[in-house]
Specification:
The structure is a single chain. This protein is mostly helical and 494 residues long. It has a domain at 29-44 and 51-319 and 450-486: Flavocytochrome C3, Chain A (Flavocytochrome C3, Chain A, domain 2), CATH 1.10.1130. The chain contains 21 helices and six strands. The strands form three sheets. It has a two-stranded antiparallel sheet with strand order 1-2. A hairpin with a 6-residue loop joins strand 3 and strand 4. The longest helix has 38 residues, at 336-373. It is globular, with a radius of gyration of 25 Å. The model has no long low-confidence stretch (mean pLDDT 92).
Length: 494
């Protein structure tokens, strides 16, 4: 006798079958769309490109849609509640950060990043790169160019990777002239996604991973991970290195740095050995729900677009909030307003804790300075400085990452709350030291309510900094551009 399925079992099988069919349909659609995109690209090639071509304009005839949308990264009009495409003076908005970075170049100048089209211009103009009048001057190594231009892999090929890093930043000003563009992420001959920076390949190798086995979807994040990561300049050669050997969490990298006895700078006030986070976007994104579900950076920051029956990736890389209809709404079914407010809600909560930590850290640095002045010994201060280092590392790791409060809000809140805890522990330990030294009152706090006041307090001569930079921009940078144009390194001045 045949066994009949119960009604609910039949419905269950039906629903399961429909889900399988839907999944296969989506997969087929994705494959067909991808093939259509590739076919469209190669059927319309007009210029033969051989070898590493760093001039982005050369790609325009072959890939006009991608090129035109890439040019739109020059647009700085978009602004959301907490982030924008504009160069916002963060130190002016949050003067406590000047105190946190006392003794480091970021205390002079820190603005929010603009689009990729501005990469070379912005790193040239920032006070952090100084005012090198010769190729031997300057505070920064050539490693600071590493993520700013497709000219970087070109010059690494000419000079060798080690030699590239070991030079001064100013020595390559006439060579690194094209902003972040095509050859940074694509093989020029066939436009396959590629890893053009050795640091990422090397980080994978040290972890026992083969980056050549990455899927296309993984590569849609890994090409971004070449630059949007935490890194440091290793050794005297200033070799660009990703500290991933022990893992990608804030604690994993802290352990790596501690064992390597690495410090980015010694704080000018507290004398704490500080770690400066760069922009661990990739690492934090992988810890959030989208990263865990396999959503790639390009899915949200470079959504597909259709024009004239052709589907292509939008190369106007910016906040997904600028085009919610093509980003969030591809997967989510809420309204644009709801989704936007969800992002703002997460950001607000993170910013609240962030502000608290910045205040506590600034006080911790100032109080540690006071303890040194009162005669504290290195042995007494060592545990205080260790706590300050830990607190500031968690703060910087959280706030230096672009979009961290959205990518992984729970992880960021965890890091910031641990930072607050350590900052308070540092202040308490410092107070006990002061008590032993006979001081039981409140440490006097300076007026650091503005960027100018905070910079003056830590001993910066900002007039001299700006004068030197102005001279450099007027006398040296035009020489760089003239030389680049005369050697056909650029198609147009950037």
């Amino acid at each position: 006798m045949e066994k009949k399925l119960k009604s609910w079992q039949g419905w269950l099988l039906f629903i399961a079958a429909m889900l399988v069919v839907f999944g296969l349909g989506m997969l087929a659609s994705s494959i067909l769309n991808r093939r259509a995109e590739i076919a469209s690209v190669f059927n319309n090639k007009k210029t033969e490109i051989i070898g590493l071509e760093s001039r982005n304009e050369v790609f325009a005839n072959n890939y006009p849609r991608e090129y035109q949308t890439w040019k739109q990264t020059a647009d700085t009009t978009f602004r959301s509640k907490h982030n924008s495409s504009q160069a916002v003076d963060v130190l002016a908005e949050r003067p406590n950060m000047v105190i946190l970075w006392a003794g480091y170049a970021f205390s002079k100048d820190y603005t929010t990043p603009r689009g990729h089209m501005h990469a070379v211009e912005d790193v040239t103009r920032t006070l952090r790169t100084g005012a090198p009048m010769t190729d031997k001057d300057g505070p920064q190594p050539a490693t600071c160019w590493a993520c700013k231009s497709p000219d970087v892999p070109r010059m690494m090929g000419i000079l060798g990777v080690d030699s590239f890093y070991h030079r001064k930043w100013g020595a390559l000003g006439a060579e690194i002239v094209n902003p972040i563009g095509c050859a940074d992420c694509h093989e020029p001959e066939n436009m396959n996604l590629q890893i053009s920076r050795p640091a990422l390949r090397e980080a994978f190798e040290r972890q026992g991973k083969d980056i050549t086995k990455a899927t296309h979807q993984e590569m849609r994040s890994l090409v971004c991970a070449q630059c949007h990561v935490e890194y440091y300049f290793k050794g005297e050669g200033k070799y660009l290195t990703f500290p991933w050997d022990k893992g990608m969490t804030v604690e994993d990298m802290e352990k790596y740095y501690d064992e390597a006895e690495f410090t980015d700078y010694v704080h000018a006030l507290s004398k704490a050995p500080i770690l400066k986070a760069q922009h661990p976007d990739y690492e934090i994104a992988q810890l959030g729900i989208h990263g865990q579900r396999g959503v790639a950076c390009a899915d949200c920051h470079m959504p597909y677009k259709s024009e004239g029956g052709v589907k292509f990736s939008d190369h106007h890389i910016q906040s997904p909030l600028a085009k919610i209809d093509r980003t969030c709404l591809v997967c989510h079914r809420e309204s644009e307003e709801t989704l936007r407010n969800n992002v703002y809600e997460r950001q607000e909560k993170v910013f609240e804790t962030r502000g608290r930590l910045e205040e506590e850290l600034a006080k911790a640095h100032i109080e540690a300075k006071f303890a040194w002045e009162k005669g504290a010994t290195e042995a007494q201060m060592k545990p205080v400085l260790a706590l300050i280092r830990q607190a500031q590392w968690r703060w910087d790791f959280s706030v230096a990452s672009h979009g961290a409060s959205f990518h992984a809000p729970q992880e960021v809140q965890r890091m910031l709350s641990h930072g607050v805890d350590r900052a308070l522990q540092a202040r308490l330990a410092n107070a006990k030291i002061l008590a032993k030294l006979g001081f039981n009152g409140d440490v006097p706090m300076p007026d650091i309510s503005t960027k100018a006041k905070a910079q003056k307090y830590i001993g910066l001569d900002m007039n001299a900094e700006h004068q030197a930079k102005d001279k450099f921009m007027k006398e040296i940078v035009p020489q760089w551009l003239q030389k680049a144009k005369s050697e056909n390194k650029i198609v147009a001045a950037n």
